[in-house]
Amino acid sequence: MSLVNLPPKPGGFIPRDRTWQPDGLTPTYKTSVRRSPQAPLLSFPSTLSEETSPVFGHHLIGPLDNDLILNYAQPGQSAIGPRIIVHGRVLDELGRGVAGALVEFWQANAGGRYRHKKESYQAALDPNFGGCGRTITGADGSYEFRTIQPGPYPWPNGMNDWRPAHIHFSLFGHGFAQRLITQMYFEGDPLIKRCPIVGVLKSQEAVDALTAPLDMHQSVPMDCLAYKFDMVLRGQRQTYFENRKEGL
Ligand SMILES: [Fe+2]
Questions:
Q1: 3-class SS at 48?
Q2: Residue 56 CB neighbours (<10 A)
Q3: From the CA of 196, how far away is ligand 1's center (Å)?
Q4: Which of the pair, 67 or 36, is modelled with greater confidence?
Q5: Which key words tag this protein in UniProt (predicted)?
Q6: CATH value at residue 200
Q7: What digits encode the pLDDT tens for the residues 209-247?
Q8: 202-207 — which CB contacts under 8 Å span 24+ positions?
Q9: How far does residue 52's CA lie from ligand 1's centre (Å)?
Q10: Are the C-beta atoms of residues 98 and 92 closer than 8 Å to each other?
């Protein structure tokens, strides 16, 4: 059974399972060699402002911020690629929705190309696609945005490594240090099992928790397919977050 499908434990504290997260040093993911700590971690007490200070307000969301098909497009035009809806919920360890969380997302275009000055992949830019957006979860922790399905892209890791199609996610809580970052993959992508970054995960359950299934119920006929991606902030069923060890 997938860990994401386990029923929530009733009541009580669910301790964090630190073995669920990958090790910091994973040489098959080359960048981890330089990024992982070389000395034992030190623990610093957090300050009051780190734990409580607001970092955003609901007023910052624009009308097209959750529509990557249109938010960078010229009037009357739209981004090129398979049109999709990505939706899901941000959940706590008991399966309860987390309201008011800022969800940010960024991705490559349909050809696998990022709009970034350090991008080195030769796939073409789409003049109508910027590649980033944001939204805020509703009362039940739900979020939704519209985009195009990103393409896979090569990256300088091994001799010929390719990233599976993916969307990067950032979740902000209500304190400065409450930020979690992860990636969503697409059901059925043959590159998932070949990816050195996915390969640092310790179990198939962890990979499955980052893989969004096709959701025909939320698709729109003649318009968009849909994928469902829930993110669990902590506890027994926690989503893998790249920066988990850094946060509060
Ligand atoms: Fe990426």
A1: helix
A2: 14
A3: 13
A4: 67
A5: Dioxygenase, Oxidoreductase
A6: 2.60.130.10
A7: 999 999 999 999 999 999 999 999 876 667 777 776 655
A8: 202/19, 202/20, 202/22, 203/20, 205/2, 205/3, 205/4, 206/3, 206/20, 206/240
A9: 31
A10: yes
> Residue 107 C-alpha to ligand 1 middle, in angstroms?
6
Give pLDDT tens digits for 66-114. Answer: 999 999 999 999 999 999 999 999 998 888 999 989 999 999 999 999 9
Instruction: Tell me, in angstroms, the distance from the centre of ligand 1 to residue 8's CA.
Output: 32
Please say whether the beta carbons of 232 and 4 come within 8 A.
Answer: yes
- 11 Cα to the center of ligand 1, angstroms: 37
Does 135 map to a domain? yes
- 145 burial via Cβ count (<10 Å: 0-12, 13-18, 19+): buried
Query: Which residues are the active-site residues?
Result: 114, 153, 163, 166, 168
Instruction: Give residue-wise pLDDT tens across range 123-134.
Output: 999 999 999 999
Q: What is the pLDDT of residue 2?
A: 40
Asked if the structure places residue 162 within a domain, the reply is: yes
Q: Tell me, yes or no, whether 69 lies in a domain.
A: yes
Residue 3 lies in a domain: no
